Amino acid sequence: MIIFVSQKIAEVSGRINVFKLIINQKISYDEFERKICKESTYRKELLTIQARLAEMAEGKLLPEKKFRNITRIGDPVKEYELKTRNLRVYLFHEENTGRIIVTGGKKSEQQKTIKYFRNIKLQYLYQKSHYYDIKE
User: Fold this and answer.
1) Which domain holds residue 107?
2) Rounded distance between C-alpha atoms, residue 40 and residue 11, angstroms
3) Does some domain include residue 97?
4) Disulfide check for 60: which of 15, 45, 50, 55 has CB 3.0–4.6 Å away?
5) What is the pTM for the complete model shown?
C-alpha cells in the first residue's frame, strides 16, 4: 500500500496553500529539483518555476503559457501544469486544503510525466476517500 503525506511548503505562502506530496517517504518534486540542479542546464528555469509557484499561491492570474488547467472533461478535481520553456510541474487542487504538487519533469517527457501524475492523483484521492468512508 502506498503511504501519502502532504507537506506544506513554508517558502511558498499566500492565499492558496501549497503542498508537496510525499509518496512512501519520497518527494517526487524534490527529486525533480535535485536532478535539474545537478544537470545545471535548466537551473534558471527552476528558479522561474519557484517564482511562479509563489505567484500562484498569492492568487495572481498567470497566463496560460505559464500556468494552465489540464483537467480532463468530467474530472471534478482540477489539475494544473506550471511551465517554463523546458520544464513542467504538475499539481492538483484539493478542496479545503490547497494545491498539491505531485511531480515535475522536462517538456520532452511531458506525456509520461502527466500519466504518472494522474495515476498518483487518483491513488491519493481514492485512498483518502476510502479512509473517510471507514471513519464515518
Assistant:
1) 28-135
2) 22
3) yes
4) 55
5) 0.92
Taken in order 32, 6, 16, 81, the sign of the CA dihedral is positive
Q: Does 85 reside within a domain?
A: yes
Please give the backbone phi and psi of residue 55, each rounded to the nearest 5 degrees, phi first.
Answer: -60, -40
Q: Tell me the pLDDT of the chain (136 aa) as tens digits.
A: 789 999 999 889 899 999 999 999 999 999 999 999 998 899 999 999 999 999 999 999 999 999 999 999 999 999 999 999 999 999 999 999 999 999 999 999 999 999 999 999 999 999 888 654 444 4
Contact 112, 103 (CB under 8 A): no
Amino acid, res. 34: R
Residue type, 128: K
9 in a domain, yes or no? no
In sequence order, which ranges of the chain are alpha helices (DSSP H)?
Answer: 28-39, 43-57, 110-135
Task: Extract the C-alpha cell encoding 12.
Answer: 511558498
